[in-house]
Amino acid sequence: MKTERYRGFGGSGFEFFVAEEIGRTIKSAASASDKSDGDVFLAIFPEDRLEAAARNIGAFCGYLCAPADAAVFPSEDSGRRLMVYARMASREPSGRALVVVTSPEALAEAGPSRKDFVRGGGILRPRGKSADLADLLSSSGYKRVDYVESAGQFAIRGQITDFWSPSSERPVRAVFDGDIVERLRFFDPSEQITVADAPSAEIVPAEERRSTEPAMSWFRGCRAVFAVSRPAASADGPLPPQDIAALAASAAPARFVLHDPFDGDSLDAGFLSASFYGGDVPSLERDIKSLGAAGYKKILFAPSPGEAARFAELLEMGAGGAGNFEIFSGKITEGFVRPSGRIFLISAEQFFLRSAAPAPFEKIKAPSRRAEGLWEMAAGDFVVHERYGVGKYRGIVTMDDPPQEFLAVEYKSGDTIYVPVYDFARIKKYIGAEGVRPKISDLDAPGVWARSRERAKRSAEVFAAELLNLYAERERASAAPMTHRTVWEDELEQSFPFEETPDQSEAIKAALADLSGTRPADRVVLGDVGFGKTEVALRAAFKAAVNSCQTALVVPTTILAMQHFSRFSERLAPFPVKVAALHRFQSPSEQKKAVSDIASGAVDIVIGTHRILSSDISFKNLGLLIIDEEHRFGVRQKEKLRRFSKNVHTILMSATPIPRTLGAALNGIKDISIIETPPAGRKPVETIVAPRSPQRAREAIVNELARGGQVFYVHNTIKDLPRKLSELSSEVPHARWGVIHGRMKAETVEKTLYEFYGGKLDCLLSTTIVESGLDIPQVNTMIVDGAQNFGLAQLYQLRGRVGRGDKKAYCYLFYDDKNLAQEAARRLDALREFSTLGSGWRLARRDLEIRGAGALFGYRQHGFLASVGFDLYAKLIAEAVRKLGRKPSAVEGVPAARPLADIEPAIDLHLDARIPPAYVPDDTIRISFYRRFVSADDEDEITSAQDALKDRFGSLPREVFEVAEAARLRLFMRRKLILAVRPSGGGSETEICFSEGVRIETAGIRGLIDAFGGHVRFAADSNTIIVSAAPPRTAASARALLEKVSKFATIENC
Prior knowledge:
By secondary structure, the chain is α/β, with parallel strands linked by helices. It has 31 helices and 46 strands. A seven-stranded parallel sheet has the order 3-4-2-15-16-1-17, sandwiched between helices. A seven-stranded parallel sheet has the order 29-30-28-31-32-27-33, with helices on both faces. The radius of gyration is 33 Å and the shape is globular.
């Protein structure tokens, strides 16, 4: 094998060269009638360059019209290796060559046997036969689960089989008719709803069953190997030239090209690095003119067509016009200048000085029901029935003929009630005050519960009136509308170092739309740690600045203030916007100047701790208040914040919002934006909850340092830090340790953090001072000592300090097993359970359950909340708000009443309406769907629930269809103010009860008598009609009966 040696690859020149050579090889093979489909090319780079190299090669192959796909084959991600193995072993012709971008470390590891890999797979197609899919999946290493949520799993529900092959970005749902595949569709694992048709589905082994052969054996006979080497004395690359050549030789490629920059005898490829312009259009214009005069072809790569169009607009304003550029849509890290080919190629990322991120996996969401599943009940949980009070949920039971499902709720003395399907909406999970065990209600003393409920209702009405007055004041308040827009905003958007995720983009749009109105904005931005909330704040603050308004960004810690100040200053440096900081680490003179500049208007954006709330702070023109990690502020601090927020736009940001904000958002009091989509390349942090173990801590530290990473070790007792440092230093003597805590001098903290950030320290021992603000991608292990003493929000924030890059990260929560309270155990279990990306929303709900909701509505409501529970109290408040809003004399700005009456109709008929356990085995999921049907406010919601059931579980059984029809009947009853329909007269008659808002006039009575041939009578209260006909047995016949009766009723005040 002859080695071709090259040097002179500036910028992304080597990747362009690789793409050119691959294109030539494919074209040559095609002209020689040599089929190139299935051709494999190997590109060997250092492990930390794989992602960038693959993006560049893929983009350049696209530009050069080379039919090839680039795939990363890393050493640490078995899922991505399996995707490459699957592509190479595939029986499906793709029509494209494969460029495997890998590292020497990955190639040296043992790989699976090709023979075993091919035997353990298969391909599914619609209308194809597959009688033994479950056996195939099991034998291929897939784990059977109830619901597929990650690769390597499968689930079977009747005629439906869900599975997630490691070779696919999305799981697949196969619907069978006997042993024939009727259809294949991709589905969203978070919503369990299908999103697109799948033309076929390839099944590959779910795990790497490694053989004795190295992975390199899979690439024997590849078309070519391209590799980057380093000199033997260097530590900055994969392998020295002789070793990389030996590795390539083992693949017996047709061609071997080595990038050897230190070999003076190698050929000069002639690629030079292009400039990084940092958004400087005049500099770009100068280069364009000089290169244009020399006859250079000018190429620009932009990550999306939209960004390409925006860049073209920018070039029209300068740089000689967009016509001088060939603009191509694609993601590359940087460009190059190639004098021999007269090519000048740059990327939008390079121009704006940012990194090119891979496109994230966009989660296609079903119609949003984010609150669904947050209210799950398990047997033994306390629940509240609106009519009977607090009891214990004992599970689902089936009774009656035809069979009906009921929720069994146990009360005092073991008395049990069975709540029918149509009444499920009356059952709420009990969430009260922290540390307060609810009192079980006594069914023999219904007056006690009735009085508790009435007292809570009166309290809710008072609270609702206060709430309405507060929001009416905000409606009447006039915030400065920020409608002015400049080209600077486009430039700031372009300078974002990453590609916006869909959720992040929507949050930014919503926040900016809020600012353009005259009503003060009140928005909550909820997103996981590191999911991009800061960018929402930065764009909003910049919008305020260009509209001559000041912004106050208030954060809970000094470190977070410093980090935000650094980030804002860096991003806004090209613009005439003044950013200032205000925190305790500043000298008195620095603080004095900041205060003066805020008052004079010289500062546009001030970032600080609660120091901003001090009485000596006076803004000249405050237009926007942003509160980051608002769950960290105390009651007094929040009261001070309110004095700022009355006439200004307000944005709250949090990863784990305190229950007050979450509860308010869920109940529609605040606007809310949820950023759920993780940034590109982000992996979930693996959470290990275990008793305190010095040996395990040592292993975690050693393993992290061995892969070139750094470690956070959190110990929250300042006086114990010297002892802990001594212990850790003796356990891991080769590690370089630093220590910080909140009582240190500012300069000591800053110096230690600077050294840690720069890699001069391996491990940082600290208190929770590192909980927020630190963003160091190379720190991928977090150890929390004494985790039982932390709150859920704290633990979640601490875990968020790691996993900020594309490496797998670990969070160890060590607890004292001799001192573990029940609530602390529940917190740790919750964090371990919710380890997926974007789980802050669910954790906040769990935090509400664990901590209680005592402060949710304020301390005056504490006792009433404890007596009836959070959900019922929130409902009583919502009812009071609607009631007050219906009165003409009510506070201005309150929305009009909704068209549906706020009643819970009772359908006490023997309908065969149920979701059979054989159809949906999981009790929690069945209850969730029952609640969806019963709580539906329109036909679309009912149809959506039907579609979701059919999609997830197959064709609807007759009983499930009847559940949907009963939900439609319930909607009709709410519109017509019908309280109940039930048997009467021993089952020979049907009783129909109207609410007090319905009258039946004399003419209506005559009409009813005529319509039913005299077989109708009225109860003493005149709102109950009894028809001499057997009760309906289906929802459709009940609807027909009620329609016939309601024609003669007159509805008042609805």
